[in-house]
Amino acid sequence: MKSPEIHIQSYFSLETDLAKEFGSWPEFIGGQDYDVLLRSSGGEEVATKYVVEIEDECENKYVKVEGNRNGPLFQRVLGHATYILAQHSDNLTVHKWS
């Protein structure tokens, strides 16, 4: 089974500090701004990362949420990241990538 990967696209006109939002979670390992690493006591890892891709002069921005398995930590991080990003945007698009 592939590691789960979800892309959350938005305008990102208002910056969101996901590291600050996840900083109080016991699984929080570290990070800053959009880039965060979390790990459960059972070894489940989830990372969020801000990505900017430029292809054919088009800029594609998204937050990638990726885990080493589709477990409870991945589900919690994905839900919370989506909710927090929605607070600063009127338009989010969520894509299953894996």
Q: Describe it for me?
A:
20% of the residues lie in helices and 41% in strands. The chain is of the alpha+beta class. The protein has a single domain (5-96), classed as TATA-Binding Protein (2-Layer Sandwich). β2 and β3 form a beta hairpin.
Search tags:
TATA-Binding Protein; alpha+beta; 41% strand; 98 residues; 2 helices; single chain; globular
**Class from secondary-structure proportions:** alpha+beta
Quote the average pLDDT. Answer: 94
Global outline: globular
Number of helices: 2
SSE succession: EHEEEEHE
State the CATH class. Answer: Alpha Beta
Sheet having the most strands: 6 strands, antiparallel
- What is the third-level CATH name, the topology? TATA-Binding Protein
